[in-house]
Structure formats: C-alpha cells, structure tokens
Amino acid sequence: MRQRKRTRRIVVALLLVAVMSVTLVSPGLAAWTVRQLEAQFMDVKININGRAVSTVNADGVSVEPFIVEGTTYLPVRAVASALGLGVSWDQDNATVNLTDPDVRIIGIAPVAANGDFGAFLAQLKEISGADLSGFAGRNATAVNVAAAANAAAGILNLENALSARNVADAAITAAKAANLLPSSYGTTFTAAELNETAFQVAAYLGLTRGYAGRISDADIFAKLDIVWNGIPAALILDNDLSTIGARLLDEGVATGFSIRNKAYAVNFDPGRTVLYSHSSLQHVKQLVALLNAQGIDARVALDPKTSWYWWEGLQYGPEFDLLLEFSRAADKAKFDNLVLTYAQRADGVATNELLQGSWWTPMYASDTPLDEGYAEAVNHIASFKGSHYYLTSTGPKGALSGIVIEIIEEMGAEASAAPQYTNAKFYYEYLMDLLPAADEAVEPPVVGETDEAA
C-alpha cells in the first residue's frame, strides 16, 4: 500500500530540532531569521524500543512529525517525555534544554507512567506519612502536584499565607520557594518530573542522605563529605537483626552480614549500577577521581552499614557501600578491570601504586549479570515489619541459601533472596569456603571468563 504523502509550505522561525542532545545551544544569537520551507507530512510514526510514542500534547493537539529536504523533524517534547527527559525552551538564548532528572527516590517504586498522579500520591504517602486522601482523583497538573508536595512536606501554612495575600498560584509559588518542583515541567508532569518532585519532598524532610551527586560534579568530594559526616552510628545498629546475623555465623552458613538503614537506600537503575564496599572515604574519593580521569561519569551514593564478617577471626566495623549508577552500561563493564589494576592489593604490588587503603579482597557486586570477572551468588535480606533497619548477607547458591532463609524466618523476621553477581576474587576467597557445608557437588557458578590472577 502506498504511503499517503501530503506536502505544504510552512514558515519556520530559526530552530527545527532534528537531533536531540542534552542541550541545543545557539550562542551569540543576534536575530531570528524566517524561511519558507516545503514540508512533507507522511504520517510518520515514532517508536522507542518498539513502544509507540504519542505526539498529542497536553492540550490534546497532535504535533505531527514532518520531513524537510530529506531530514525528519520530530516534536521534541513528545520524544523527550517518552525517554523520561525534562524539556524546556529558553526564549532569551533560543535553546532547547533536555534534562535527565536525578530520579533517586528512597527505597520506593518510582512513577512509571507520565501523569500518573495516583502513583505520585502513593510515593508522597510512603515518604511523609501525610494524609493525602483529599487529592485522590485529581490529575498531574502543576497546581495539583505542587499542592500535594506542599502537604507532604508540611508547608501548607506557607501556601495558605501566600493565598491569603492574594499571591497568584500560591501553591506553585510555595513549592518553588521550598525547591520541591523540578527546574522545568510541562502542562502535565512526566513520570521523571513526578519522581523528581517526590525526591525533592524527601530531601526537604531530610530523608535522602545517601545520595551525593555525580562524579562530574565540581563539588562531588565536598558532597561525599557532607553525606558521610551526617551519618549517626545509631542509624546502622539493630540488636534483633544482629542476633539473627550472629546465628548465621555460628551455624557456619554465612561468612558475614551487614545492618543497614532504608533512609540511605537509592533507587538506581540496576542495569547500570555497581555496589562497591569499603570503609575509607579517602579511598572512595580516589576511586571517584580515577573514574573521572577515565572519562567515566556516574551518579554516586553512599549506603552506610555496620558489618560483621569472619576473615581470620571475627571482625566488626562501620563500612559503607559506594553505589555507582554509570551513565553507560559499557562503563559499568569496565569497573572490574579498573579495580584489579588500581585498587586490589596483591603480593608483589607496591601499595604506593594503588589507591589509598586498597583491600586484599575487594568486594563489589551487581544485581544484573556481567560478562567477565563475576560469580553468581545470592543476596539474602532480613527485616522486621515496620522497621527501617534490614540485614543483608551474601552467600553461594544452592542448599545453603535455603538454610539461611529458614533461619531468618524461624527467628521471626521476613526473608527474601535475589541473585547477586560478586567479583570473582571475593567469591573464591571469601564465599567458596561455605560450599562444602551446602552442596559439595556444586561448582561455583561463574559468569563469563575470569582472570586467574584475580
């Protein structure tokens, strides 16, 4: 069937967006220019990963793609929204700004669909505990989002004071004053914008202490200091969970366990995230600097924990997991080689050639498989209903994992387990000793090829 083609002349003022990037800039723009172009409208469809993208804007008007001189022009807001990006137009500088909001909601499911106000209210309810029932059934307009955010953050008094003084858009003004809204948003909020608003509410309430920023941030080291220095030791201690962990060690079904607090959890994309354990902030700063020098960018968070582990005798101490959500999956794959080269102490390697405080047996892991250098293990999680604390313990697959779950549940806690792909050195030197007690016939499951020197 022949494709229907319509041709008409249109007047274009300066800017047609053909290729999207983070920022499209026209520096030093002196004046607008106007050209008449012949455009072809061929009912062009847009799919992202096989999913159709609607080109109908918030006002119900279809913004149809068209072709000019062989180049296809797409409605930037529709495509950006489908990719989870924010989009704004800077009139003064003739610039389209696409932003990748830091969606880092603490331990709760992010909004998945554009304009899902109900899911947004559920986020705010879980973050703040506020009664938001009065907002049920509304749409994700700027006024509704702002008012719900104000209620969750506890600043309705500010909104009411502004309203009493006849300030226009009092709800939005109050939310902006408390930095609850993203820097840009459309008529109806996208999923990314709703998630960012929920995070800003959590930040206002002091519940996002784990997130620091990006490796590329000029002040990332100061931000890491702020996060680490703001962690009271009491936040990562829980006697009931410690008792469970001690039994796991006593019965020889675990080599270690950690106690954590949900307040520091971040909702990074597991496909691009690596968890790296350490106890020295100076080591982490050098690792961040190394990644930056390699041209690798990532979101950075610290998840504090108190760890007990059996390694040449029982040891105990405050540690943390450095969570790195890489901008590209390819950069995540490079992490193992960087650690083996720069951050793993070994015989014959001078410590002055390594990052400060490098460990003999570094521990890092991914929740998704990687091609080389990792072995498949199991991450066990224990928690008590209503508590912000939880226990984690990594062990090998097989019968042993079932025993760990049984002990946790027997002691009255909720238990779960999920695959975790740990670096090979940690697996072979730290977890493999547990295998005979579980299933002598099971070979340690390795993902891809492993460097024997690791």
How would you characterize this protein structure?
This protein is an alpha+beta fold. It folds into three domains: 6-99, no CATH class; 117-204, no CATH class; 211-447, no CATH class. Helices cover 30% and strands 25% of the residues. The chain has helices spanning 76-82, 117-128, 142-153, 156-164, 170-177, 191-204, 220-229, 239-250, 281-293, 329-342, 399-410, 424-431, 435-438; strands at residues 6-13, 23-24, 34-41, 47-48, 51-52, 66-68, 71-73, 86-90, 95-99, 211-214, 256-261, 273-278, 298-310, 314-326, 363-366, 374-383, 389-396, 414-423, 446-447. The strands form five sheets. An eight-stranded antiparallel β-barrel has the order 11-13-14-12-15-18-16-17, surrounded by six helices. Strands 2-9-8 form a three-stranded antiparallel sheet, covered by helices on one side. A two-stranded antiparallel sheet has the order 1-3. Mean pLDDT is 82; it is low at 12-30 and 449-454.
